[in-house]
Structures are given as C-alpha cells and as structure tokens.
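Q: Please design a sequence for this.
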C-alpha cells in the first residue's frame, strides 16, 4: 500500500552527515601503505551505529562493511590506483549471518580481508568481532566498473593494482555461491515471476 508520501525523495540529514563524517575520518586517518591488499583490515565502529532499539540494526552492518572495504583499499594503496585508472568497485553479491546482537555501548571491531579472485569478481570475508568472538560474518563478491562504462576484468584489475590475482584463487564454495545466487546480466531479461 502506498501512502501519500510514497515515492517522494527526502533528504536524511542525520544519516547523510554521519556518512560523510565517517568517510572524512577514514580519508584523514587511513595511511596508504600501512596494510597489504591481502592483510586483514580492522575498522572500529562508532556508538552512533546503534539504533533506537539499543542494538545494531541489520542494515547498519551492510553500511559499515562498505566503509571497511574502503578503508582497506585506502590503507593498502589500491584506492588511488583504481581511481587514477577511472575504475570503481561495486557489490555484486553479499550474504551475512548474524550470531549475536551488538548492543548499546558495546565496542567491537570489523575485520575485512580478500579471500580470493576468479575471472569475474573479488571475494571478501568480513567479520564483526567482540572480545575475540565472531558476532556476525559476511561474504561479498565485488566487481569493478569503469567511469566511462563497462566491466573491468580481474586480470586488468590485477594490472592496475600490481597484484597477481591468479596467485589467490577464490575458494570453490564461494564461486559456487556466486554462481547459484547471481541474477542475469543487465542485457538479459529478469522477469518478476513468483513460482
């Protein structure tokens, strides 16, 4: 059911401010060269990520994962290389499993690492950790696109970043997960039929 305001764009001032404040902080504190591209990047999370129910809302996890991947790319020095090449990352697939809630006032870290590559994507594992215990874990398949349009192959991404992507193949179960959950390409019909 559509309400009277449905479809109308609004400007979420608080969320917008928090997002750009976080991005600014990452830009100012992430020193290139402090991590290798395949090291584990650790991002600490702000108290403002807790929602009105005093725990972290499931949608916040996905946003924080974006920041952590950006932080890893900055610290590894990959970000300026891909942007200089007119390339940027996008999420193609992701799955997250929640084990324990993160509640008001609790401190935790978000760890991010590249699990491997295939010919289509880079595969990433991300973990929310509190007191050495995993509270949530996600798997992400990312692709890279050109500012001018089109998809960047992993071989070309390797040339841009100076990484031999063939030395770190993605685990077979991850490539199977990607194949099983992938939607058709944008030039292929994807009818909305419920069976």
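A: Design:
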């Amino acid at each position: 059911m559509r309400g009277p305001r449905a479809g109308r764009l609004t400007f979420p001032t608080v969320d917008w401010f928090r997002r750009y404040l976080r991005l600014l902080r990452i830009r100012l504190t992430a020193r290139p060269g402090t991590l290798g591209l395949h090291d584990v990047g650790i991002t600490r999370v702000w108290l403002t990520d807790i929602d009105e129910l005093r725990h972290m809302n499931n949608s916040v996890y996905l946003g924080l994962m974006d920041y952590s991947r950006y932080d890893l790319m900055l610290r590894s020095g990959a970000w300026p290389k891909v942007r200089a090449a007119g390339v940027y990352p996008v999420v193609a697939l992701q799955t997250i499993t929640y084990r324990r809630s993160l509640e008001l006032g609790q401190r935790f870290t978000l760890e991010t690492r590249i699990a491997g590559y295939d010919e289509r994507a880079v595969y990433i594992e991300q973990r929310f950790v509190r007191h050495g215990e995993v509270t949530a874990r996600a798997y992400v398949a990312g692709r890279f696109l050109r500012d001018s349009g089109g998809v960047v192959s992993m071989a070309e991404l390797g040339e841009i970043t100076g990484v031999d992507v063939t030395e770190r193949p993605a685990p077979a179960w991850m490539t199977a997960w990607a194949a099983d959950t992938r939607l058709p390409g944008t030039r292929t019909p994807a009818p909305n039929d419920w069976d």
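Q: Thanks. Anything notable?
A: The helical segments are 13-29, 58-76, 78-84, 154-161, 172-181. DSSP finds five helices and six strands in the chain.
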